[in-house]
Amino acid sequence: KVTIKGIERELICPACKELFTHPLILPCQHNVCHKCVKEILFAFEDSFADGGSESSNQSSPRIRTCSSSMDRIDRITRSGIKRNSLTPKSTLFPCPGCQRDIDLGERGINGLFRNFTLETIVERYRQAARAAIAIMCDFCKPPPQESTKTCMDCSASFCNECFKIHHPWGTVKAQHEYVGPTTNFRPKILMCPEHEMERVNMYCEICRRPVCHLCKLGGCHANHRVTTMSSAYKTLKEKLSKDIEYLISKESQVKAHITQLDLLLKETECNSERAKQEASQSFEKLFHVLEEKKSATIRAIEASKNLRVEKLQSQAEEYQGLLENNGLVGYAQEVLKETDPSCFVQTAKQLHVRIQKATESLKSFRPAAETTFEDFVVDISKQEEILSNLSFHSNGVEIPEISEEQSRMYNKALISWECPGKRDSADIYVLEYHKLNREEENVTWQETEVCSKSKVIPDLDDDSSYAFRVRAYKGSVCSPWSREVILHTPPAPVFSFLFDDKCGYNSEHLLLNPRRTSVESRAGFPLLLGSERMQVGCYTTLDYIIGDAGIAKGKHFWAFHVEPYSYLVKVGVVSSNKIQKLFHNTHDVASPRYEQDSGHDSGSEDAFFDSSQPLTLVTLGMKKFFIPTTPAASKDPVSRILPLPSSLGICLDCDKGKVGFYDAGCMKCLYECEVDCSGIMYPAFALMGGAAVHLEEAVTAKYGEYRDDI
Q1: Lowest-pLDDT range, 151-160, 561-570, 598-607, 696-705?
Q2: Which of 207, 215, 194 is nearest to 106 (CA)?
Q3: Please, what is the angle between helix 251-320 and helix 341-363, to 10°?
Q4: Where does residue 519 rank: exposed (0-12), middle (13-18), buried (19+ CB within 10 A)?
């Protein structure tokens, strides 16, 4: 039999640190009190609305969650953005058990199961803890009698007499189920939280939770692998029983490990004391060196002070003698009383020289010594920096390296790093970053602790450069700082949109993925049918697709990448005033000089063709980026062809009427031109032949966690 008092650790809520009360099972399989879940969600939403103020964490004294689990989610509402499609609302919950943000889905807290098994165990623990406290009858007249039964259907406790009165023989109530006195009431049948009238009768092996038949037929578990509840019960019970039997059979081994751990605890205590003494001795040496330097510096300052005071006092005495009837002047006045010329001349000659020197010093007064001690200011900036980085260094902790390929800047910064030896020998990492600013002399690094090998950093300034570095910690031992990596943020706030599958979308030629973040053009049978008109020249059309959100004002940036195999892709912007013209222009890539009936072969018509286009686009294809022809551009075609970047970005400034095309990897502008922003501007894409475009995925708070899991 299990000793109830020995399992108290498993019955404590990670949020309130008290015994569970109506525990709910989260998707991450951790349990949290129902009340705690509501309080954490309220605190999370408050911090959401307050823009991430840390004070909202303290809204409930019951919650003691770690601050790292309460990372704020950006809610950026930008002026000038119009969206014509809605995304389903989901609820994020910061689990206090695993310190991750858990998606509770559209139903939120209403979609969570109540853990009745855990609730029953907690109730047994409470009863064992309060064995001397009896459960009283709920229906007795005062004074109430001690209860002998608890009716699970009535959710109440009764003494023998009251139970007979309220459950008379021959009635429906006589069939009620009763147990011994308890305060834990649980339903007979577990109902589905999504379909409240349906009982759960299946188990989803993907989501690891009970489901009903409606969840399997048309709900979120339609395509998941499920099994019957009895089969799941039998399988899980067998696995759990085998695991428990294995642990019980290894009881002697567990006790041996406990004895070894006790010895390790004592050894740790002794070693920590020894390490403290060694660290204290090291700092005592530093204190001794500093004390010597301090004493020498104070002695030098004191000696300089005494010398300067002596000079200033001597100068003050000299000037004191220049006063009437005092010192040199008084002596000269007495000499003037001498009437014998020979005696007067003998004394007055030397006196006159002294009087002249005193007169000259009076005209050009200068103190005999400086009062400032600027020469004795101790510069400790370098030593202070060294001391601030003072830590335990060891060759056992590898220096991490920031991966520029896996790191990226978009709506947020995702910084990823690896260890050269490909072994995770660190307990924790410390990531530091700062904005590069030429005007600032003293650099202030911002620091954050990370348990994984990546970190998402929000709220960075647009069109800026940041330096990043990371170091690893193994206990108290740390590695040196990694090489600094400089990354650039986008030139404007990131604009989010999806491909529009309604306005002008050609489903015969273009293929969208279900999330509408990728579009593909297939050079298949439809293109062959369209080539019937091809006799001498080229007479094919582009397939256009636009974004489902438009921009009315402000400056915005978005990024995407084009598959290297793409034959022809055009990217840019289109005004709402010209969308109809765009999708009705069927001769957009045909040149008159290639027509059979053109009659000439001049290129003058191409210039007219380019200027009459209803949108601003640049051409990509065959792993190349083509800079459009302009009067100011170079006439050499080779200079207008650049390698296609792995990721491209477009920056639209509606206020200035300009659009720029960027290498999104280094945020370098490749081409910029003017654009008419009189209407609402939409991102535009055109594909021909085999081609594909993928929108850049926004960096979220959970992005790095998912990447680590994969």
Answers
A1: 598-607
A2: 194
A3: 140
A4: buried
CA-based nearest residue to 217, from 209, 226, 206: 226
Number of neighbouring beta carbons within 10 Å of residue 312: 15
CA-to-CA distance for 7 and 401, rounded, in angstroms?
43
Do the domains 1-45+89-133 and 401-489 sit in the same CATH topology, yes or no? no
Q: Torsion angle, CA of 687/692/693/694, rounded to 10 degrees? A: 160
Phi, psi of 709 (to 5 degrees): -65, -40
**Of 40, 142, 183, 51, nearest to 101 (Cα)?**
40
Q: Where are the domains of the chain?
A: 1-45+89-133, 231-378, 401-489, 510-585+613-705
Statement: the pTM of the whole predicted model exceeds 0.70: no
Measured distance CA(202)–CA(40) in Å, rounded: 31
Residue 544 tokens read as 């256009």
User: How does pLDDT run across 404-424, given as a tens digit for each residue?
Assistant: 888 989 989 999 998 876 566
Q: Phi and psi (nearest 5°) for 553?
A: -160, 170
The DSSP 8-state label assigned to residue 572 in this structure reads E
Nearest to 301 by CA among 375, 241, 359: 375
- CB crowding 279-302: b at 16 or more within 10 Å, else e: eeeeeeeeeeeeeeeeeeeeeeee
468 Cβ contact list (under 8 Å, min separation 6): 402, 407, 415, 431, 432, 433, 484, 485, 486, 487
Per-residue pLDDT tens over the stretch 580-618: 777 765 444 433 333 333 333 444 333 333 444 557 889
**3-class SS letters over 119-180:** HHHHHHHHHHHCCCCCCECCCCCCCCCECCEEECCCCEEECHHHHHHHCCCCCHHHHCCEEC
Sequence-separated (6 or more) residues with CB below 8 Å from residue 681: 550, 551, 552, 573, 574, 575, 576, 652, 654, 675
Q: Which fold has domain 510-585+613-705?
A: Jelly Rolls (2.60.120)
Q: Which homologous superfamily does the CATH classification assign to the domain defined by 401-489?
A: Immunoglobulins (2.60.40.10)
CATH number attached to the domain at 1-45+89-133: 3.30.40.10
Distances (CA, A) of 478 to 383, 443, 448: 20, 22, 15
Q: How far is CA 297 from CA 89, 378, 381, 386, in A?
A: 67, 9, 17, 21
Phi, psi of 250, rounded to the nearest 5 degrees: -100, 25
Which two structure tokens, joined as six digits, stand for 522?
């297939």
Distance CA 312, CA 302 (A): 15
The closest of 453, 464, 516, 523 to 490, measured between CA atoms, is 464
Tokens of 646: 């792995």
How do the residues of the chain divide into helix, strand and coil, expressed in percent and rounded to 5? 35, 25, 45
From the CB of residue 70, how many other CB atoms can be counted at a distance below 10 Å? 20
Question: Which residue type, as a one-letter code, is found at position 546?
Answer: I
Find, among 459, 486, 460, the residue nearest to 404 by Cα: 486
pLDDT of residue 495: 93
Going by C-alpha positions, the residue among 386, 322, 317, 409 that lies closest to residue 664 is: 409
